[in-house]
Amino acid sequence: MSSSFSFNNYKDNASVYSFMHCRKNIHLRTVRFCKFAEHSGIAMNKNPILSIRDLSVVFDTGDEIVSAVEGVSLELFPGEVLGLVGESGSGKSVTALAVMRLLSRSTARIRSGEIWFDHPEKGMINLPDLGDQDIQSLRGRHMAMIFQEPMTSLNPVKRCGPQVAESILWHRRSNASGARKKALELFREVRLPRPEKVYQAWPHELSGGQKQRVMIAMAMACDPALLIADEPTTALDVTVQQDILELLQSLQERHKMAVMFISHDLGVIAQVAGKICVMRNGRVMEEGPASRVLNEPSNPYTRALLACRPSLEERPARLAVVEDFMGEKSSDHEIIQSPPGAESSGAAAARQSGDRVRPSGDRVRPSGDRAREKEPVLEIKNLFTRFITRRNMLGRPLEHHVAVADVSFQVYRGETLGLVGESGCGKTTLGRTIMQLIRPDSGDVVYKGVDLSKMSSGELRRLRTRFQIIFQDPYASLSPGMSVGRAIMEPMQVHGMLKNNRERKARVVELLEKVGLEAWHFDRYPHAFSGGQRQRICIARALAMNPEFIICDESVSALDVSVQAKVLNLLNDLKREYGLTYIFISHDLAVVKFMSDRIIVMKDGRIVESGEADSLYASPREAYTKKLIGAIPDF
Fold first, then answer.
1. In this model, does residue 115 exceed pLDDT 80?
2. Neighbour tally for 70: CB within 10 Å
3. Which 8-state DSSP code applies to residue 78?
4. Which residues, at least 6 apart from 210, have a Cβ–Cβ distance to it below 8 Å?
5. pLDDT tens column, 13-39
6. What is the DSSP string of 263-274?
7. What is the distance between the alpha carbons of residues 564 and 555, in angstroms, rounded to a whole number?
8. pLDDT digits (tens, 9 = 90+) for 457-498
9. CA dihedral in degrees (323, 594, 32, 89; nearest 10)?
10. pLDDT of residue 634
11. How are strands ordered across the β-sheet holding 143-146?
């Protein structure tokens, strides 16, 4: 351990425990973290393909000048994989956009610094000095980028194949028929099923993993020497994520590319990077070989990122947060503190004494066995949900896709039921069917003795305050033309909650601060927030109705690990304070295990396995469950 970091100031031993547990797992896998560097055979005496020197980027908001990147310097060599890691707002994506010259001219400005790129024909060139035509000829041809959100990066009114062929034609690498042939070859190389069909498909017809593969094919269209991958696996389930990581590794080795891989998840970075650069608040906090950074981090912030990830082996009462390691007062104070009345006096005394690390069986929640002695708050009986996939000329259905097939289970008051499975397994459709946003074809959804599937729309509307859902895509679930404060207030107005808008606004401000935002965010619009901030806004909106039952559909998928830890702690606090019941849907099985009392595993619309969270992870019965657990990035 570095002498620059001391545990003496900790009041929360959970953070110490989490960090030490991470170190125990890390040192066993050192060789794995360096595999890209070993395979690439980097010769460090060569010129770097990318050299960033003292880069500073500022944004003009109209009211003030905000510094996004300050004095960043790093180098990337041919064939090397550099992992750029940090929280949302750390400056990692801004750094990448500065390299690609994609920063908005109206608001962003490179205040100082140089970005040198080794052009195969012109030698080292400073990218900020290039004109528009020169940088356009460079982008796509010699350097390319995979963006974080493939749905918003792909043109929704253009078929997928022509979008990839367009890049080939733009750089005059082929004619129209050759570009089509090259695009199909790329689709096969990125392992897309039925390439000819995908070529003619619209983006909305593909799954998240398939859209991401199309984006990778587009980036690889002209065999770039430098590839920037900005959070390419953030919204993917663990098995698809593993496939994408293996795909990127094989492409990197085959084409000998230099890769800058951006992620907030050190578990993912550990799998792909030979060198790691950790950023915070626009500055580089630590940089070095992956084995050294992950085994012996010298900066407290790196230690914090390692400790914030939920562990598959142990479950502390609370997840550690960054502020525990940095000696700072959290700006999200409400998130990391238990609400009044959330703990018994005995638990509070234990917490004050520093003993907050409890084994999973001692968590402050009813065990599954005790919960099942009560009447279920929700009972699903033989539920079927189908979608029409083909009609005849008269509009009559000819073919159906069964999204939920004969599903039955119970949820008990005060528990969290985890729902996991790959993309397309039916878990989101099941959640929406429970909420009656999608009407089932058959079966019953019984909430507190009332069958929701038999209720009219008017009757359901009166019950909407009692159960809520946090949607998977925060941007799509917020109106772009409505400020976030109004979006949170609107359901309160519809259902007549509180006396007037003044009281409602005060409640909205309270909720914004509860999820780590500020009061002045009330009048801002969704586009002005990061993906993680938009997810927190959606959580605040769900809480506005004081519900009893919440379905969390990938509610932390867009959050970096530090904010994710705070939000998960918040959800558990709210559960204890208000007696909430959750169905927690996620592709991240480590998060599901931390949150859940029981877990249901779905595949092809059916339940393949269920059980208590700890026992299911320790002794999975089904091969599919073992596959999901084996795909989780682990230290």
1. yes
2. 18
3. T
4. 192, 198
5. 444 444 444 444 444 443 443 443 444
6. ES-HHHHHHH-S
7. 9
8. 888 988 888 999 988 778 888 999 999 999 999 999 998 889
9. -40
10. 63
11. 143-146, 226-230, 258-263, 81-85, 275-280, 283-289
Q: What is the 3-state secondary structure (H, E, C) of 156-168?
A: CCCCHHHHHHHHH
Question: What is the reported pLDDT for 14?
Answer: 43
36 or 219, higher pLDDT: 219
- Alpha carbon distance 586, 472 (integer Å): 9
What is the rounded distance in angstroms from the CA atom of residue 584 to the CA atom of residue 26? 28
Q: What is the pLDDT of residue 328?
A: 58
> How does strand 50-60 pair with strand 65-76?
antiparallel
pLDDT over threshold 70, residue 281: yes
| Token couple for 61 | 């908001």
Coil, strand or helix: which one is 514?
helix
Bridge partners (DSSP) of residue 470 are 552
- Please write the tens of the pLDDT for every residue from 502-537: 999 999 999 998 887 899 999 999 988 876 688 889
User: Quick check: 434 and 443 in contact, CB under 8 A?
Assistant: no
Helix/strand/coil (H, E, C) string of 189-250? HCCCCCHHHHHHCCHHHCCHHHHHHHHHHHHCCCCCCEEEEECCCCCCCHHHHHHHHHHHHH
Nearest to 113 by CA among 54, 177, 43: 54
Question: Which residues, in sequence order, are CB contacts of 599 under 8 Å at separation 6+?
Answer: 417, 418, 419, 420, 592, 593, 610, 611, 612, 613, 616, 617
Task: Specify the 3-state DSSP secondary structure of 420.
Answer: strand
Q: Cα separation of 376 and 423, whole Å? A: 28
Asked if residue 119 lies in contact with residue 142, where contact means CB atoms within 8 angstroms, the answer is yes
pLDDT band at 141 (very low <50, low <70, confident <90, very high): confident
Q: Residue 385's pLDDT band (boundaries 50, 70, 90)?
A: very high
Assess contact for 562 and 512: CB atoms under 8 A.
Answer: no
What is the chain's length? 635
Q: Are 164 and 158 in contact (CB under 8 A)?
A: no
DSSP track, 559-613: S-HHHHHHHHHHHHHHHHHHT-EEEEE-S-HHHHHHH-SEEEEEETTEEEEEEEH
Please compute the mean of the pLDDT values over residues 201-229 and round it to a whole number. Answer: 87
* Model pLDDT, residue 635: 57
SS3 of residue 507 by DSSP? helix
By the 8 A CB rule, do 206 and 194 touch? Answer: no
Q: Which two tokens stand for residue 245?
A: 């990581």
